[in-house]
Design goal:
Immunoglobulin-like, five-stranded mixed sheet, 2% helix, eight-stranded mixed sheet, mainly beta, 30 strands, Neuraminidase
């Protein structure tokens, strides 16, 4: 959702700094996604969409070139106000839940088969219609507490987090994954002291990340542990310390156990003069998941997947390899099949490659995982 009102008050509350994180700017979002409003990591790719009034399309992003590789059209959908995207093992869910004035009586979530998404650039969606169980008035009184921009999967249900323009808090509601007309059940509430714009849940650690920004576009990420299907905020809520300056942060997605990405959309204002480019960031958390806990797979953290990214103008190619298998070797091939780089698995010390010795062209970063090979192309300039 576009920011309709910006209070230029530069008094910031101090945050309690507990966990350590490292932040890296990957690059500017593709021009097709200047108004991006959600992210998932699926099949080794980032997928995003735009918000209100844009086309009903999903975009696959190449995180090395920061270009759109593929566009998938949802043939029977309308983008009234798409605000977030999430997934489970078999489906992708798009949240048409933007509701700034609190007047909408057509809130919905589009449900798309991953099998259809993988096989076609034009797919049809099932539709989950819902209404909040405790909303009785739909009058337009200006900005409201019924806006929402965050959706995530929690076991067999979908959870919506509202964006309260008046209260600066959020309310969690649960909705079934089944198509049809339903009531969103109120679960929990939390005073975030900001505007919630996205969420991503990680069953590996049973942690929820909540993205948002203040009224003056200071971003925040809250990490919530101990999430259950009946109590979202019953555990510890911690603010993750990171600084990317002013940004209208919109999308967030786990890409591995302790790494996630966030995106911002373009923001421009004439008075005072503000122009913020839409950017993509990678954030690494230093804490580790308790290995004694019994965990279940997370569809947002794909096994045997490889994500590549590179800062604009840099000669360093960074990668995120998600696998439980032993890495036997790493290699780089050119388009003729010639191997130009090789390391044994025991020699791999960093998740980055220096491209300074490579000529301009297309190459393939390849990992040998014992029973399979995983490879992705990249461009050396």
């Amino acid at each position: 959702m576009k920011l309709r009102f910006l209070h230029m008050v530069f008094a910031l509350l101090p945050y309690l700094l507990i966990s350590q994180v490292s932040v890296e700017e990957i690059g500017e979002m593709p021009p097709e996604l200047a108004e991006n409003s959600g992210l998932i990591f699926y099949n080794g790719k980032l997928i995003s969409h735009n918000d209100s009034g844009n086309t009903p399309e999903l975009y696959e992003i190449d995180t090395v070139s920061m270009q759109v590789n593929r566009i998938v059209t949802i043939s029977n959908a309308v983008n009234i106000d798409w605000e977030d995207i999430t997934q489970d093992e078999n489906h992708i869910y798009i949240a048409d839940i933007g509701n700034y004035f609190g007047t909408r009586e057509d809130l919905s979530i589009y449900k798309i088969s991953k099998q259809d998404f993988d096989s076609s650039d034009n797919v049809a969606a099932e539709k989950i219609n819902f209404a909040y169980e405790d909303q009785s008035s739909f009058e337009d009184n200006g900005k409201s507490n019924w806006d929402a921009e965050a959706l995530f999967v929690l076991n067999d249900q979908l959870v919506i987090l509202t964006k309260q323009w008046l209260g600066s808090g959020t309310v969690a509601y649960s909705v079934t994954k089944e198509p049809g007309n339903h009531t969103a059940k109120r679960l929990d509430t939390y005073q975030v002291d900001g505007l919630v714009t996205g969420a991503s849940f990680n069953p590996l650690s049973n942690e929820l990340l909540i993205l948002g920004h203040s009224s003056i576009l200071v971003p925040f990420v809250n990490r919530v542990d101990g999430v259950t299907t009946s109590t979202i905020f019953g555990g510890t809520v911690e603010n993750l310390p990171f600084d990317i300056g002013f940004a209208q942060t919109e999308g967030i997605a786990y890409i591995s156990q302790n790494r996630f990405v966030i995106s911002s959309e373009h923001f421009q204002r004439t008075i005072p003069a503000i122009n913020l480019n839409p950017l993509l960031y990678s954030i690494q958390m230093e804490n580790e998941v308790n290995s004694n806990e019994e965990i279940e797979p997370n569809p947002e953290i794909i096994e045997d997947s490889l994500l590549l990214y590179k800062k604009y103008g840099s000669n360093i190619l960074e990668y995120e390899l998600s696998t439980k298998k032993r890495v036997l070797a790493q290699a780089v091939f050119d388009t003729s099949g010639k191997m130009v780089h090789f390391k044994q698995g025991s020699e791999i010390e960093h998740t980055a490659l220096d491209l300074i010795s490579l000529k301009s062209g297309v190459y393939y970063l390849t990992f040998y995982l014992g029973d399979k090979i995983i490879s992705k192309p990249f461009v050396s300039n």
